[in-house]
Prior knowledge:
Radius of gyration: 20 Å
CATH superfamily of the largest domain: Winged helix-like DNA-binding domain superfamily/Winged helix DNA-binding domain
Strand content: 5-15%
CATH architecture of the largest domain: Orthogonal Bundle
CATH class of the largest domain: Mainly Alpha
Number of strands: 5
Distance between the termini: 43 Å
Largest sheet: 3 strands, antiparallel
Number of domains: 2
Shape: elongated
Amino acid sequence: xxxxxxxxxxxxxxxxxxxxxxxxxxxCEHNRANGLNIHDGDAxxxxxxxxxxxxxxxxxxxxxxxxxxxLENEGLIKTGCYNENPWDRKKWYSVTEKGKxxxxxxxxxxxxxxxxxxxxxxxxxxxxxxxxDINNTDNKQHIYSEIIxxxxxxxxxxxKATESTKRIIHERIQxxxxxxxxxKVIDNKVATWKGTEWEKFLRxxxxxxxxxxxxxxxxxxxEKKHAGSREGYSVDITKYDTL
Length: 243
């Protein structure tokens, strides 16, 4: 996988910051061009620090956290929370006008009210991204890493993006399912299985299996199976949960 960055941005803000900013910008613009993850008038992308660490294995989680915080403090990115599940720890990121101007080498009005004054090239860049092959090697590796890192974050596991794991995720993507669909399957089965005897099945070869994936995706998890229940019989234990 190739990672790129702007040398001037690296000199001004740091190498890690330049790499991460470029990545966030790419995915925000990809989402904007395809009408995905649009909130409050901006396109967003989301990730956990662990997911970033899977994507950038040459950075520690602390380095990634510090780089993200630095980019936010410098006003190049902004953060938000648009998770449907209040317990979801994914953080959302969008590139600010200042960040876009710096990336596109545009002129800015002033520091207090940053606004691009020569961003004609942004429109053509966004159009190109819409037609970028989401299935090319670099993008696929990015998606595999995000999905596995998300599973590990939710379940406290340490799965790696091995060839067999990537293959089964790739098969679902080829069928037309998305990264968000994979996240949804993980969320649904964590809600149903975590803390029960079925927790051992929170693993890639079960969650992303062709015969099960679509059913898991469309589940509405409202109860957990009791640890002593047999297949086909369940006890609603959610009413006994404590805060």
